[in-house]
């Protein structure tokens, strides 16, 4: 056990593990290899930086390299781990200086994260086309949106930033019309961000509603809110290509089935006229000078390709309740790893921030000798779209519930967020999903403009406690006119779903 | 079973029971006797009416008598049930016209509620001195505060209102300085309401902090908020008398030990100078022209005094899991009845709105033949003080925990309500209390200005699920920068308390 704890990746999972390990096992060494220059940044904060709500890129950094040094962690940026030899218990490391060396490990944590999937869209080499999965991308988008004369370089105030890329984008003419490809979190949050920057924003979603994992009620209300705020929402409208030679000129899309926005081939009044699909077929074309692709992420597992490690859901590295992979003394945590789902008890892959932090911390404790479960995940998530808030947890969609062996029954109710007589009461939609046979709550979502998102934690807790719908109906939740009516919307939903279950 | 279901009391519990029964057992009669003129009003909304945030008294009514009629419920206002004969299964009823009659029942629900306790303070006959436990009191206070020339009689727009009392109070000179006696919910909410009406407000609390059942952290932050908003908070300062002949002239109080406000004998700048305790002892005196006494409520159980019904905690009517009293076919629900506490499994008396509604509804179903538990109570409560929000659940204070046989361990943490970089993140104090031996969560409180109150429902759910602190620490709660940091304040508190438990 004299060999060090080696961590690959210096973001949420990796640094949580290294920090926890450092505190618990001060006698052992811990080395963190990070192939890039960035560490410990808030991925989820990037849309708000681009929006301008957050002033400096540095605000998104949780820890600086010197913070990490001070914790007694041997952090080596610009060090890419390219191979793992689980028999010899060592990794091969390449530095940005071109050196290669072997590093023995006692325990290894793979915390390599994920990266944006591009689908058919190659944003590389096309000015004005971006994905949003790195701080350099966030800085570049921010610079690109700004008027060249008005860009403040102090916005990207971190040494690690790709300054050439920022400068290059800052010098390009400011865009006026943006297409966002993908109606998930990133898409919805970027829509708000770009409206905040004064752009004419079009949000394209392949399927017939936004935020599919949040269920129908959330998708509808978020689409309404975006539309009310000036976003043109194109649901059921797959973008097929980013058009342009050096700079993005347009997005080409299959004509959709309606949805909540104008989707009839670019005839939506914002420069689209005259640019309808040239072939007279069912394709449309919208001229844009900014395109952001947010169609998903996938786990970075290439490091273990030479080993016989087992992969699982989503192609992520299979891990057990302690974050152990199928290789001895090799752990994985964060966006590159699977986890156990609280409802199904089965493997799942849901790359989310708390999951990464929590699993990293648990692995750090376990490697230090204090065996700690990484915890189950419930897929709890929240999202903001202007004044609309939404949360989801568990198995919201029928497909997921059926695939897990449940017979899902669902109800959606609309109830007031406060006592009806108290100003500011807002309609809040609660969807609850239960298993017909057992009556167990297996998923839910909440959407509304008044404190709706945080209410999802109530459902997450009920779900992790394996509560049935009758048990949820009898929960003693808080009542106070400014915050909740006598029957909280969650209780109303449970009452209605309980009635359906009893039929 | 041909005899009707008789309900005594037409507020939350009574009308919930009658309505549920009516739907479930359409073939049986249901009669609701209400001694007064008011039915189904929102007690918790009264401070907001007085504040002026709610325009009309009628806004606080959930159901009108005609609504109740339309539901097929035989509602008889002005009918006071004065005796119960459980052997003969009949009640004696007196009408406001002076008639008396016997009414047989098949099942009886006592839903007589509670009433304000006065302590040593007799507000009757003293102009400008009030308790707040009826709609007539709310209307009278509202009228009293108004400038006689400016009072809008349409504020009290309900036929049932005691118009003479309203008119009398409206004609009195408007007050300038108010003393609120009691720093519980009513006191805190009334302090905000009276500041909203432009009064100079003094809040007197016997013990050394406000809102004792919410714990220390809540008491302190609410006191700070009130002080910041101009309320003079006198903690540790028992009011000993309301002074005045026809109209309130002053409150006399024992000199306190400091607390957050000026408590040194009325020398707080607002007309108090020169009115210090005349005897040179430790009494103070504050001239006021409005006093509101909110020192608690007690259950109305007089109706059953002639029977051998068992009373329990707080002198309330003892009930079992179905709301049954110790008398055959006699139920009790709402503020007059005990309930089972979710943490202790023992009898408790906590008069709260949801408890009444839920128990009433359950009794209605049970009497109709669908046996339904009334549900356990966790003492979940929330309160607003200007921009400060707080919630509490379970056993927060050591005394309560020890009395229930627990060995309480507690931690209070202050954590951000949002990601630190996201504007609007506010310090949120979470207190968790656990039992040392079992590690079980037995209580908690949350206070802060950003969505703090509604978060208490997460703790309420965890507590009702008998979760341990390690289980709470591993909850998959939502993370999204506008609503919660990666580690929600609840998770931070669980982590810290867990560390303490492991010591």
TrEMBL record, chains A, B:
Limits of the FAD/NAD(P)-binding domain: 5-340
Stored Gene3D superfamilies: FAD/NAD(P)-binding domain (3.50.50.60)
MF-aspect GO terms: oxidoreductase activity
Gly residues composition-biased segments: 256-277
Domain of life: Archaea
Listed SUPFAM superfamilies: FAD/NAD(P)-binding domain, FAD/NAD-linked reductases, dimerisation (C-terminal) domain
Region (Disordered): 255-281
Pfam families tied to this protein: Pyr_redox_2 (PF07992), Pyr_redox_dim (PF02852)
Record keywords: FAD, Flavoprotein, Oxidoreductase, Redox-active center
Cofactor: FAD
InterPro entries per UniProt: FAD-bd_OxRdtase, FAD/NAD-bd_sf, FAD/NAD-binding_dom, FAD/NAD-linked_Rdtase_dimer_sf, Pyr_nucl-diS_OxRdtase_dimer
Segments forming domain Pyridine nucleotide-disulphide oxidoreductase dimerisation: 381-485
Family designation: Belongs to the class-III pyridine nucleotide-disulfide oxidoreductase family.
Protein name: FAD-dependent pyridine nucleotide-disulfide oxidoreductase
Organism: Halorubrum aidingense JCM 13560
């Amino acid at each position: 056990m004299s060999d060090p704890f080696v961590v690959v990746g210096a973001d949420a999972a990796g640094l949580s593990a290294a920090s926890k390990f450092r505190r618990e096992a001060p006698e052992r060494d811990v080395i963190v290899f990070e192939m890039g220059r960035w560490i410990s940044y808030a991925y989820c904060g990037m849309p708000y930086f681009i929006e301008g709500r957050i002033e400096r890129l540095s605000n998104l950094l949780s820890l600086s390299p010197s913070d990490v040094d001070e914790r007694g962690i041997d952090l080596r940026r610009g060090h890419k781990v390219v191979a793992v030899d689980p028999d010899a218990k060592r990794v091969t490391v390449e530095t940005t200086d071109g050196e290669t060396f072997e590093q023995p490990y006692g325990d290894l944590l793979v915390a390599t994260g994920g990266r944006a999937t591009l689908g058919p869209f190659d944003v590389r080499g096309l000015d004005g086309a971006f994905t949003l999965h790195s701080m350099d991308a966030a800085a570049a988008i921010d610079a690109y949106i700004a008027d060249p004369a008005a860009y403040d370089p102090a916005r990207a105030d971190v040494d690690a930033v790709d300054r050439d890329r920022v400068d290059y984008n800052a010098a390009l003419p400011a865009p006026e019309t943006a297409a966002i490809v993908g109606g998930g979190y990133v898409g919805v949050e970027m829509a708000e961000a770009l409206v905040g920057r004064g752009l004419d924003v079009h949000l394209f979603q392949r399927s017939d509603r936004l935020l599919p994992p949040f269920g129908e009620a959330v998708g509808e209300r978020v689409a309404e809110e975006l539309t009310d705020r000036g976003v043109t929402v194109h649901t059921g409208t797959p973008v097929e290509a980013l058009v342009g030679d050096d700079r993005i000129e347009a997005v080409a899309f299959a004509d959709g089935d309606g949805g909540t926005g104008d989707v009839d081939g670019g005839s939506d009044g914002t420069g689209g006229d005259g640019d309808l699909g040239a072939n007279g077929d069912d394709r449309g074309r919208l001229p844009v000078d900014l395109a952001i692709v947010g169609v998903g992420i996938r786990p970075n597992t290439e490091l273990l390709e030479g080993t016989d490690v087992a992969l699982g859901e989503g192609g992520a590295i299979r891990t057990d309740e302690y974050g152990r992979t199928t290789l001895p003394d090799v752990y994985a945590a964060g966006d590159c790893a699977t986890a156990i789902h609280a409802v199904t008890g089965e493997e799942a892959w849901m790359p989310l921030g708390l999951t990464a932090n929590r699993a990293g911390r648990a692995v750090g404790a376990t490697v230090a000798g204090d065996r700690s479960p990484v915890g189950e995940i419930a897929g709890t998530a929240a999202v903001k779209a202007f004044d609309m808030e939404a949360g989801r947890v568990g198995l919201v969609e029928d497909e997921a519930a059926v695939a897990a062996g449940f017979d899902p029954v669902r109800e959606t109710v609309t109830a007031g967020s406060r006592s009806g007589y108290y100003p500011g009461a807002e309609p809040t939609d609660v969807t609850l999903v239960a298993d017909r046979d057992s009556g167990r709550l297996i998923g839910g979502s909440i959407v509304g403009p008044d404190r709706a998102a945080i209410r999802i934690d109530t459902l997450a807790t009920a779900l992790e406690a394996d509560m049935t719908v009758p048990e949820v109906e009898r929960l003693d939740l808080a009542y106070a006119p400014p915050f909740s009516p006598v029957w909280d919307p969650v209780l109303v939903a449970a009452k209605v779903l309980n009635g359906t279950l009893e039929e």
